[in-house]
Amino acid sequence: LGTPPNSAIHKYMNAKKVPQLFVATGATKWNDPKHFPWTMGWQPNYQSETQIYAKYIMKMMPNAKIAVLYQNDDYGKDYLKGLTDGLGAKGKSMIVMEESYETSEPTIDNHIVKLKSTGADVFINITTPKFAAQAIKKIAEIDWKPTHFLNNVSASVGSVIKPAGYENSQDIVSAAYLKDASDPSWNDDPGMKEFYAFMKKDFPEGNVLDGGTVVGYGAARTLVEVLTKCGDNLTRANIMKQAASLKDFKPGVLLPGIAINTSPTDFAPISQLQLIRFKGEKWERFGDIISADVGG
Q: Which residues belong to any copy of the Leucine-binding protein domain (predicted)?
């Protein structure tokens, strides 16, 4: 899990020709079959996500003043690059402050206060769950009311929104590719019924509401599909070959209209997202499924 641990073994895995499949991070670099043919991500990449936010801001809030908080590592910088690329030449001047934080910091409260002082009316929140919950709480505490974009990494109701407080989280915008296990509207959905049954039987102590559980299940279902397609030819080379030839595979937990597709030149299994807005105690989808084309 995470960009730094996978980056640490990235070259080693490829030198030793070990399939490093469905890496749990959205860094763009996992989609580089030419230089790293043994590594493949799973979730939509970070640059795709912030490019989609940028498109939305340019269309709906062309005069926005944007403040950005990002984690000072590959993960945070990837998201930031997607945002600046998406805003383009004109849009870059819309960013009034880019503020980074270190994961070793106990709290990011001082960064939030600093960003509010810029007078920004749009806040791009590129943080991991612990810091995302802190940011949501602090924004409410200091009565800052920007349009708040929260990266998908921290959009989990169970691990971020609920601890931060539903009342503090209203109208936050994010992007989704997975069904939200906390949303009762999926209760009769065949794919989610399989997920709930799996959790009850095989992982009863797990938190069904945690987005991470849904990701893990979706990645595991994808791996089962790859191994099934391998048949009895379970060589490393064939495992990578099958992983790179998935066509419209739906592991049951992806939103309607989103499917997994890979090819020998495209190691980004999921490249579609839908914008969501937090209302009441759940995320509501709005707009169309948006495809982002960001290469490795």
A: 5-279
In the prediction, which pLDDT does 295 show? 47
CATH number for the domain spanning 127: value is 3.40.50.2300
Domain count, the chain: 1
pLDDT digits (tens, 9 = 90+) for 146-192: 999 999 999 988 889 999 999 999 999 999 999 988 888 899 999 99
Q: Is 78 contained in some domain?
A: yes
Catalogue the long-range contacts made by 260-267 (C-beta closer than 8 Å, 24 or more residues apart).
260/222, 262/40, 264/33, 265/33, 265/34, 266/31, 266/33, 267/30, 267/31, 267/32, 267/33, 267/39, 267/40, 267/41, 267/296
**Residue 284's beta-bridge partner residues?**
277
- pTM exceeds 0.85, yes or no: no
State pLDDT tens for residues 38-75. Answer: 999 999 989 989 999 998 999 999 999 999 999 999 89
Sort strands 173-176 and 272-279 into parallel, antiparallel or unpaired.
Answer: antiparallel
Angle between helix axes 74-92 and 3-15 (nearest 10 degrees) is 110
CA distance 283 to 179: 10
Phi and psi (nearest 5°) for 238? -70, -35
